[in-house]
Amino acid sequence: MKKKILITGGAGFIGSHVIRLFVNKYPNYEIINLDALTYAGNLENLCDVDSKPNYSFIKGDITDLEFVTNLFNKYKFDGVLHLAAESHVDRSISDPLAFINTNILGTVNLLNAAKEVWKDEMSDKKFYHISTDEVYGSLGITGKFTETTSYDPRSPYSASKASSDHLVRAYFHTYKLPVVISNCSNNYGANQFPEKLIPLVINNIKHSKTLPIYGKGDNIRDWLFVEDHALAIDKIYHEGKVGETYNIGGNNEWTNIDLVKKLCDIMDKKLDQAIGTSQKLISFVKDRAGHDMRYAIDASKIEKELGWKPSIKFEEGFEQTIDWYLENTEWSDHILSGDYEKYYEKQYKNR
Ligand code: NAD
Ligand code: TYD
Hints:
The protein is α/β, with parallel strands linked by helices. Helix content is 43%, strand content 17%. It has helices spanning 13-25, 65-75, 89-94, 96-117, 156-175, 197-206, 226-239, 256-270, 300-306, 314-327, 329-336, 339-348, and strands at 3-8, 29-35, 55-59, 79-82, 126-132, 179-184, 186-188, 211-214, 220-225, 245-248, 253-255, 282-285. Helix 2 runs parallel beside helix 4 (96-117), helix 6 (197-206) packs parallel to helix 8 and helix 8 (256-270) packs across helix 10. Thymidine-5'-diphosphate binds at residues 89, 186, 196-197, 200, 212-214, 219, 221, 256, 288.
């Protein structure tokens, strides 16, 4: 019998890369993608795999307990990779409740359903919760987050993810649910919704719009190519030890302003315009409330224990990403109509 694997949030940015990897690499798995198709979910991200025999899509909301319970009873999944979430910090500042509902209640619904359906036999099952480095809080100039760094979330988004991480661990300790957790740094790559820094800047340069940099642009993020994150998720799902947490990072820190300037210069070359043209669009705007200063991941545990490290050099992944957004104009155009335009207006109006 084929193993049935549930992947939640598979129509989103990272989820779609995980689905593609699993569907192509594991023909002997039945991959079920559960996604509510919020503004961030886009089935166009999966058009190259949606006709594969080992893939199916179910539209549904993880906050709907009855739906989730019925789904687990029907499919009796062998494993769960849980990526569905509200994921954008700025949206969490204007609408925290949506994050509490999906990220906390939605996760608990999945945990309860898995606990119930696996109650007689948990030994070959796995519930893998995909989380963020933002749960650890904000760093100064030195130091890195390790798996034992105390949680110190500071935005409604990171607080909701931290809460879900705690609940996942509580189900391991209390009910012996076979869980594993990973906390990853900022991802970049194809199919990322253009509310996040990199696709937003690419898109604004394309349309000669200003590039909004929060505060002084000196906040630091550790960027990882999304396909490398998907490979880490594959390793952890198959080889990660139950009850453990693994940090995933790119060892690739950039201040926002340096990253955006680099992006501007590459875009100038690609668009055949004088170097400096795009940088003129940079505009320093009002800072994000509670803006975390620096994130940096110590990923030595996953490297030592599971043999994973980033495979793609930043220069290569970054260029590949920019090319993808320049080539896939139809994808961007579809997203840019509708919710995103309204969100953009509201978010940047008074900055
Ligand atoms: P995303 O916002 O691009 O995608 C989230 C997906 O979840 C969407 O397809 C959306 O439709 C779906 N979803 C939202 N609410 C749902 C609900 N109630 N029921 C069912 N589906 C729902 O997010 P992403 O950037 O791909 O992040 C995926 C996961 O990885 C999240 O858990 C996030 O916290 C984590 N993460 C993201 C990053 C990053 O840099 N993007 C870094 C580390 C960890
Ligand atoms: P983002 O892509 O939203 O990811 P996160 O907040 O989860 O790290 O933002 C990355 C960094 O870029 C973060 O420090 C905030 C900053 N930023 C801007 O300066 N301007 C923007 O318009 C956005 C969306 C982000």
